[in-house]
Design a protein that fits this description.
Blueprint: H1 8-14, H2 18-21, H3 28-42, H4 45-50, H5 69-86, H6 100-112
């Protein structure tokens, strides 16, 4: 039974803090954000998504550091809507003051339909 998925030993390994995972674990989110930004740039997100909504380009660590949760959430929703539309599924751009739960529900519903 050891090593079976969902067993206690596996859960403990997955819940380790950054110190237990190694010295670079604390910076993993920054690496992921840089990879995300590179991929968005390849898709021309600045010209296609940001200019249309008069938004500034993302910094290398925009989503890695919690600075302004409301602004970051709206940027995430804007990018999600743009990516869904770019994938060929028409998706209405959320507005800044829309209910966050409804917006996320709509995004997840659309992604499930893929």
């Amino acid at each position: 039974e050891e090593g079976a998925p969902g067993r206690r030993g596996e859960r403990e390994r997955n819940e380790e803090g950054p110190a237990e995972r190694g010295p670079g674990a604390a910076f993993h989110m920054f690496v992921l954000m840089e990879d995300l930004l590179d991929k968005l740039k390849l898709l021309s997100y600045e010209e296609e998504a940001l200019r249309r909504h008069n938004m500034r380009p993302l910094s290398r660590h925009y989503f890695a550091l919690p600075t302004n949760p409301g602004e970051q959430f709206f940027m995430f929703c804007t990018l999600a809507a743009w990516l869904i539309s770019k994938a060929g599924h028409p998706f209405e751009q959320p507005q800044e003051y829309d209910d966050p739960n409804a917006v996320i529900s709509n995004v997840l519903s659309e992604l499930r339909s893929f």
